[in-house]
Amino acid sequence: MIPARTFSGKNVALFGLGGSGIATARALQEGGAVVTAWDDNPASVTRARDEGIAVQDLRRADWSGFASFVLSPGVPLTHPKPHWTVDLARAAGVEIIGDVELFARERRRSAPEAPFIAITGTNGKSTTTALIAHMLASAGLDTQMGGNIGRAVMTLDPPRAGRHYVVECSSYQIDLAPSVNPTAGVLLNLTPDHLDRHGTMQHYAGIKERLVAGSDTAIVGIDDIQCAQIADRLERAGHDVIRISKRLAIADGYFADGHALLRAEGGRIGQVATLEGIGSLRGQHNAQNALAAVAACLRVGLPAKDIQPGLDSFPGLAHRMEQVGHQGRVLFVNDSKATNADAAAPALSSFPRIYWIAGGLPKEGGIEPLRSFFPRIAKAYLIGEAAPSFSATLGEAVPYEIAGTLSAAVAHATRDAVRDEAEDVVVLLSPACASFDQFKNFEVRGDAFRAAVLALDGIEPIGGTRG
User: Fold this and answer.
1) Spelled out in words, what is the top-level CATH class assigned to the domain 5-97?
2) How far apart are CA 341 and CA 35, in angstroms?
3) Separation CA 304–CA 222 (nearest Å)
4) What is the second-level CATH architecture of the domain 101-312?
5) pTM score
6) Strands lying side by side in the sheet with 460-461
7) CA atoms of 238 and 276, how far apart (whole Å)
């Protein structure tokens, strides 16, 4: 835990008592703050009280006595309308911050030289965060990973010289971290997302820009126009900017050419690493993730000789194009995180011959946006509520069956895939749907797929089994 000593002796209001909220309250208490916490969920309030956190309905609190208000990132700050606590804080002139801001202040107070990499973007930030942390840890460096992935940021070990922090930041967290100042800030990409919470794409992009604008070095993917404009704007303002591209040969920065990761600097181009043969980083989208990771790791001092070994040994993230196992030539891939068509596209673009398990609770637009990938699909196995609508979209373009359940889909896809004589065959769970018709969440769905695959005869697991 990181004690929030910058708040020692101060009265702090806190709203949101989920896992990260309770962790933040404990960090504040450990640092000497006087915390008054609340939540709209009575069960969360009871849990916090039982764990020794002082609770009070903030509607009846004296806000003039609070130095700061710490808000859970899951609670609306601006859209569709501010939460009632936000209105109370603003009326009293109390600053509104989140746990990433607490971390930033503690790092500045106790170890400003501790390398800090923060990662954001619409897509790929979890994989990039995990890859950076893996590369640093594989080289023997003291590495802490958290934020929007894994551990709440205030549960990490306290900042000290030589301790490296790799923190995934959602737009909600950035919005509550006005002074966040990473050594290297990564902005991967921008597509419309969370507009119910941010109102407009311009506002959403502006929040993401804050992270890299506050960084010593901004690492920006320039493959979409808004990010390219952000990179240009930051550079004009005098910021140190490193551009990355998964498809453009750029004059200064990092870019991909097939499997090769290249660096252009001062008119010279050199290869820094290759992704050839790294199954966990397959696909063009992972080239962008890897480029960002390489640029960030080099920026914080990772020796160039440690780059390739770190990439080679990366196991990937569960449920994100996770390689589960082989049965002969057939590869089984768990991409349960793909809960809509756009999220399924990277996996479908990464394999030439696919036995595709899809379906669940359908999202608006269905799988029509994936039509360009239909020639790659040998057969589809449709599950859940989406099966009828998906079958109508597939029509005569793709052979399909209504498998109904995930276990049946795995069995039938395996039966057909092992008969395929193509060299590169994959059984792919990439549902393009929410899980809620048959599973609690995408993690449970992915776990069920993994268990069904590992129960098959003759399976050779990849990278061990996950719990």
Assistant:
1) alpha beta
2) 43
3) 24
4) 3-Layer(aba) Sandwich (3.40)
5) 0.90
6) 400-404, 377-383, 354-359, 425-429, 330-334, 322-327, 460-461
7) 36
